[in-house]
Design goal:
This protein is α+β, with helices and mostly antiparallel strands. 44% of the residues lie in helices and 19% in strands. Helix 10 packs parallel to helix 16.
């Protein structure tokens, strides 16, 4: 037995009693036709009292279908059955019966096993909706419980159609059961305040506390066009359309319903008015049938005269109902050739226009002839405004994203100080609206404490010069080899003179690479060698092959031999990327401790500046504890960066070492955003001393020696005050216990720098491990032996 089962406040009973009561009254009519009709209906029902009393067994609907058809005959006029989409049903349940002929045909076209169900029939929502019916019709609280219901039913071609359901509930009775409760205004107020608290609603109006006896008549209307327009609008309003994996597939499916075309496909291109070309829209699933595999193409190469005039000049729809026909007539020209080769048989191209500016083109294509044409192209009039609005919005979002990327990548407006720039920008706007001359005032943060650190690639200049020397010598030797072969074939003095000059260059750079050597040799090759090599290439002999072999060794970007330099550049890039990523990721956690300004530079290594103080923290009170915390964090992260490098080192083409340094500065200072340089710098003459120390400290020597302060395998901490020395010795002692340092710790005095004296430094030897999971530690020398083993 199939029964009605659902957790609802209403216990459903199928009954025709309320309708039959109308026929009871008709028996007393003076109209003999009405009396005869009423008698026919009542006589048909009389042997089946359950049709009045009500039943839950849905099998009875099939058993008594002929009788039910007689009972409902006046409500379901036979003359309208081919046109009306109609059925008897139960509210909130997917139960339909006595369907009109048109509705029956719609269901048959949907497929043999298809059963209609109401969209978004969420149990919780339906329970509350059932309760609102009870609150209005039984308890007398006038609540608006109207809510649209829809059936989504595919047609014979598989295109989804949408039907809105309107209920006629004239033949329903609402009866309380023993489970029903008395409700006060206070109870109702509590329910209205908690619409999502399903348990509360079930407590106040329990399941099956009322009987809904009767049936409803469902009148359905095809609202596919209106629904799809709404869906198109919803899809286009959504943010991150290009990044969404489902945007294009969802939008394409909606357009298929809109045009009733199962195989319809959707594409977009943007229009670049500056270059008069169409360009690909980059995003998940977004394609173009005009461009095919190209990223862009000039309009005069992609469009014929008529399509260009229609789309670009007139900004009107360009429809192609029979592409095969146009392909033959156009003698295989574009755009017909490209569409034909893709198997497209009909298409519509719609210009996306905003205030007479062409932004792009919407592409609709089908593999069937005549399905897309000039007539149904007019349907786009209803959706193009939303497409235009979406494209304009997307363009603005893209411009904002570009600005954000530029700000993020090219300026130093760190998020910790962004609030101050926001304040100034708002004031700039207000001044302009008030008719004042707006000006962006300088941003200054006072009384902030600086922290500076660097991990510098040791002897980077020497390594770079060695790489350049090797590349130049290889290139010159290769050139000499070609010229020597040419001299043997054709004894020309010019070859001999060039070989002489090459030998001189090789001898010159073998010992020392001067600052102008690279440019001199580059000019020599381009002025004297390339013209001769171009001449030799024209010779049909071994010399031409030798020249071609030489040219294959030349890098297209640098126009020179670029092997050892590339290895050096790649090694530096990998070191910088690893170290920058580590400190940037760790910065996220440090900002949570206390907001502070942070900037980081890539040079031959990584430098970073940090400033902390109450003027930077927008809404938090600064305490010296946070400065100490940041100093300890910096010390620990610098050790982790050293470890990251020495685990990376064996993988590098050039085995480069690094040396680390921290500058401790106990006096607070002010920083100012330099508008011309788009970066922060210390403010004031006195504070400039800090910048001088920063720039010169890594070149300093230990006092009385020729020993550089920074050394590989050691972290140097430069300071000038005794209290800083004691503070950092405590930090080192703590980190030593955690396995960051050895016992090899020394304090040294530094030679005076120009304009700076009295500096000292702690040098602490770092412990390394082969990877982050390996607890075994090494000194620098141990690690080198271990890595080279």
């Amino acid at each position: 037995m199939e029964s009605i089962s659902k957790d609802m406040p209403l216990q459903m009973l199928v009954s025709f009693d309320k309708l039959l009561q109308q026929y009871d009254k008709m028996l007393e009519s003076d109209d003999p036709l009405l009396v005869s009709r009423a008698k026919t209906v009542l006589d048909a029902q009389a042997p089946y009292p359950e049709l009045r009393e009500g039943f839950e067994d849905l099998d009875l609907l099939e058993k008594h279908k002929d009788v039910i058809r007689i009972i409902l005959q006046d409500s379901f006029a036979e003359v309208l059955s081919e046109n009306e989409i109609k059925a008897a049903s139960l509210p909130y349940f997917d139960v339909v019966f006595n369907k009109s002929k048109r509705f029956q045909k719609i269901l048959e076209n949907a497929g043999k096993d298809f059963k209609p169900f109401i969209r978004n029939q969420d149990e919780g929502i339906d329970y509350v909706m059932g309760c609102t019916v009870i609150l209005k019709w039984y308890y007398g609280y006038n609540l608006d419980f109207s809510r649209p219901y829809f059936y989504d039913i595919p047609d014979a071609n598989g295109v989804m159609r949408h039907y809105r359901i309107l209920y006629n509930a004239d033949f329903m009775d609402l009866l309380p059961t023993d489970l029903s409760k008395e409700l006060t205004q206070e109870d109702v107020d509590k329910l209205l305040e908690n619409p999502e608290d399903l348990e509360l609603w079930k407590e106040m109006i329990p399941p099956n506390s009322f009987i809904s006896k009767g049936f409803v008549i469902s009148n359905m209307f095809d609202v596919t066009a209106e629904h799809t327009i709404s869906e198109i609008k919803t899809n286009l309003i959504a943010s991150d359309k290009r990044g969404s994996e489902t945007f294009m597939s969802d939008l394409q499916e909606t357009f298929r319903s809109f045009f009733k075309i199962k195989d319809l496909k959707l594409g977009f291109v943007t229009y670049n008015s500056k270059d008069d070309q169409l360009e690909r829209v980059y995003g998940n699933g977004i394609e173009s049938f005009l461009l095919k595999e190209k990223n862009s193409a000039a309009c005069n190469n992609l469009l014929c005269i008529s399509s260009y005039d229609k789309l670009v000049n007139q900004k009107g729809y360009f429809a192609l109902p029979d592409i095969d026909k146009y392909y033959k007539l156009s003698k295989e020209s574009q755009p017909y050739k490209g569409l034909y080769e893709q198997g497209i048989k009909s298409a519509i191209f719609a210009p996306i226009v905003n205030e007479d500016e062409l932004l792009g083109v919407l592409e609709l294509v089908s593999t069937k002839k005549n399905l897309l044409n000039g007539v149904n192209a007019t349907k786009l009039d209803d959706v193009m405004p939303y497409i235009v609005a979406a494209v304009v919005r997307s363009k603005i979002e893209e411009e904002n994203l570009i600005d954000a990327i530029i700000q993020n990548e090219c300026t130093s407006v760190h998020k910790s100080v962004h609030w101050r720039f926001e304040e100034e920008a708002k004031q700039f706007i207000i001044d302009g609206l008030d008719g004042k001359q707006p000006s962006f005032k300088e941003i200054v943060f006072k009384d902030v404490y600086p922290l500076y650190g660097q991990i510098d690639i040791k002897d980077s200049s020497h390594a770079r010069n060695t790489a350049i020397q090797r590349d130049l010598m290889i290139q010159l030797s290769n050139i000499k080899e070609v010229l020597t072969a040419a001299l043997k074939i054709e004894n020309l003095p010019v070859y001999e003179e060039l070989i002489y000059r090459i030998n001189n260059f090789i001898e010159e750079i073998k010992e020392t690479l001067f600052s102008n050597s690279e440019q001199t040799i580059f000019d020599f090759v381009h002025t004297d060698i390339i013209p001769i090599f171009n001449h030799l290439k024209k010779q049909d002999n071994e010399l031409a092959k030798m020249v071609e072999a030489y040219e294959k060794t030349i890098n297209e970007e640098t126009h020179s031999y670029y092997d050892h330099r590339k290895q050096y550049d790649d090694s530096v890039m990998r070191i910088n990327k690893k170290l920058a990523t580590l400190i940037d990721n760790n910065q996220e956690a440090a900002q949570e401790m206390f907001p502070h300004f942070y900037e980081r530079y890539k040079t031959d290594g990584i430098e970073h500046n940090m400033y902390i103080g109450s003027s930077i923290a927008e809404d938090r009170e600064f305490d010296p504890l946070y400065l100490k915390n940041l100093r300890l964090w910096q010390l620990q992260v610098m050790c982790e960066m050293e470890n990251k490098h020495y685990n990376l080192k064996p993988q590098l083409d050039v085995q480069l070492d690094v040396a680390s340094l921290i500058l401790v500065y106990s006096t607070s200072l002010s920083i100012r955003f330099r508008m011309d340089e788009k970066r922060f710098d210390v403010d004031g003459t006195y504070n400039a001393r800090y910048e001088i120390i920063k720039k010169r400290i890594d070149k300093s020597f230990v006092k009385g020696t020729n020993e550089r302060l920074t050394q590989k395998g050691k972290l140097s901490i430069v300071y000038s005050q005794k209290k800083d020395e004691l503070e950092y010795l405590r930090y080192i002692s703590f980190l030593k216990a955690k396995g960051y340092f050895t016992n090899n710790i020394e304090i040294v005095e530094l030679e005076g720098l120009q304009g700076v004296s009295g500096l000292k430094a702690i040098r602490a030897e770092i412990l390394y491990s082969k990877n982050t999971q390996d607890e075994k530690t090494f000194t620098y020398e141990d690690l080198m032996n271990e890595l080279n083993a």
